[in-house]
Amino acid sequence: MEKIKLGISTCLLGENVRYDGGHKLDRFLRDTLGRYVDYAPVCP
User: Fold this and answer.
1) Per the structure, how many domains does the chain have?
2) Range of 32's domain?
3) 1-44 pLDDT, tens per residue?
C-alpha cells in the first residue's frame, strides 16, 4: 500500500527550528503515525 504524503511542521519531528531554538517533538506523530505516512516537513 502506498503511503499518504502529509505536510507537517518540522519542529514536531524534533528538529530545533523554533524561534526559541527548540522543538516540540511529538513521539506519536514521529514514531507511530510515521509508519503509515510520508512526511513532507515544512517550517512555517
Assistant:
1) 1
2) 4-42
3) 899 999 999 999 999 999 999 999 999 999 999 999 999 999 87
